[in-house]
Amino acid sequence: MLVTLILSAGLLPPAARADSLRCNGHLVTDGDPAARVVRACGPPSFRDPWWGAAPATGVPPMMEWTYNRGPRRLMDQIVFRDGRVISIATAGYGFRAGSLPPNGHCNPASIVSGLSKYALLEACGEPVQRSGGYVNSTRYDDGTHRLFLRHAAHPVYRERWIYNFGSDRLMREVTLENARVVSVQTLERGFGPH
Question: Which of 20, 87, 108, 122 could be a cystine partner for 79, CB 3.0 to 4.6 Å?
């Protein structure tokens, strides 16, 4: 009876929507400016600006922030377009920053589709080569789901990274779309010690 009265009186805080995030008692939702997110959640663990957007392409500046709160909590990822939240999602369990192997000591087999750019950088460090920018794609691929669009292309931030694991291992070319690994190709033998 008391629970019914509390619920009907609206005394409980509203539940966070699937496309929202609760930080320190504040609710972050689609359309919120980046400054409000920082005020509510603090600075992100990782900021990833998606360079290459230009007024001529019709794609406003975009970026993704990742909040990593440790190994027992899910990571939150927020995508911004033109400084405002357009997407909020979880990205698997967090980890202790700096606890993963340093560059050159990661296991190439751990680079798999769906891995976030943040987790890839933490596990394997910076690649020896990076290139990328916006492309129009008829494919939607988030690393776990792949869809093909028949009549429309949409802008995708595509990057190609090359990892060198030393002369005793094969190099890998990693393709990322919107900060997610979507494919891994094996290349020729690497070079130098590692």
Answer: 87
